[in-house]
Each structure stands twice: as structure tokens, then as C-alpha cells.
């Protein structure tokens, strides 16, 4: 409380969020690591690039980062019907798809489900 009387002038400046990322990260880190029993806390800040400059300098080089193999899932029959009008050979499955497809739309390579609340 004694220090409060030593402060002669205070100026408040609004800093935009785009310029305040590091301070926000530090404040969040301090809040998460707050331990009232410890007086000293060492924080090591490390800088790591997310993209390798060598890869960026040669754009013709292809690098496989994460390969996903496509497998059939529940959406495939709906997409096939909406895109091409194809139904399953099994009549019961074809009827189910024909009835349930009314709740879906296929736009821009995305299957969307409509809900009517």
C-alpha cells in the first residue's frame, strides 16, 4: 500500500489484440503456473519455426506430412445419391437412403445436414 503513494502519474494506453499476443500468452502462462508456495519460477521461452525455410525456398518439392487413406464411411451412399443418383443394390438400404437424404445437401464437396427446429 505504501508503494501506491509513490506513483505520481498513471497513463492507460489501449493496445490492440493483434499487437498484444505475447503479453496475453505470458499472462495466461502466469495464471496457469501460479503457485503461492514457490517464490521463484523459471520460464524458458523457446522459439521454433513451424515451416522449414529450405522447404519454402523450393516450392516444387513435394513433402508428405500426414497421409490419410480414404475408407468408406456412412456418408458415401448419401454423397453418391446426391451427386450421381446412385442407390445401393439392397432395396431396404436404398429406401433408407432415399428417405434420409431429404435432410442433407451436398454443396462444394461438403455434405451438410439440415435440422428443422
Structure report:
The chain has a domain at 75-113. It is 36% helix and 7% strand. It contains 5 helices and 2 strands. It has a two-stranded antiparallel ribbon.
Q: Radius of gyration over alpha carbons? A: 29 Å
Helix coverage percent? 25-40%
Proportion of residues in β-strands: 5-15%
Succession of helices and strands: HHHHHEE
Q: Counting H and I runs of at least 4 residues, what is the number of helices?
A: 5
Amino-to-carboxy terminus distance: 57 Å
Total strands: the figure is 2
Strand order of the largest sheet: 1-2
What structural class should be given to the helix and strand makeup?
Answer: mainly alpha
Major sheet details: 2 strands, antiparallel
Which blocks of ≥5 consecutive residues have pLDDT under 50? none
SSE order and pairing:
Blueprint: H1 2-6, H2 21-32, H3 53-57, H4 75-84, H5 91-100, E1 104-107, E2 110-113
Antiparallel strand pairs: 1-2
Features of the shown structure:
117 residues, mainly alpha, two-stranded antiparallel sheet, 5 helices, 2 strands, 36% helix, elongated
Can you give me a brief rundown of this structure?
36% of the residues lie in helices and 7% in strands. It is mainly alpha-helical and 117 residues long.
Amino acid at each position: 500500500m505504501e508503494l501506491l503513494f509513490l506513483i505520481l502519474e498513471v497513463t492507460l494506453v489501449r493496445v490492440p489484440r493483434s499487437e498484444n499476443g505475447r503479453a496475453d500468452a505470458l499472462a495466461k502462462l502466469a495464471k496457469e503456473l501460479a503457485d503461492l508456495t514457490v517464490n521463484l519460477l523459471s520460464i524458458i521461452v523457446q522459439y521454433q519455426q513451424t515451416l522449414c525455410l529450405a522447404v519454402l525456398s523450393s516450392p516444387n518439392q513435394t513433402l508428405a506430412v500426414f497421409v490419410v487413406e480414404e475408407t468408406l464411411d456412412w456418408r458415401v451412399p448419401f454423397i453418391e445419391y446426391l451427386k450421381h443418383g446412385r442407390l445401393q443394390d439392397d432395396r431396404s438400404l436404398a429406401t433408407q437412403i432415399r428417405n434420409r437424404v431429404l435432410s442433407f445437401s451436398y454443396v462444394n464437396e461438403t455434405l451438410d445436414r439440415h435440422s428443422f427446429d
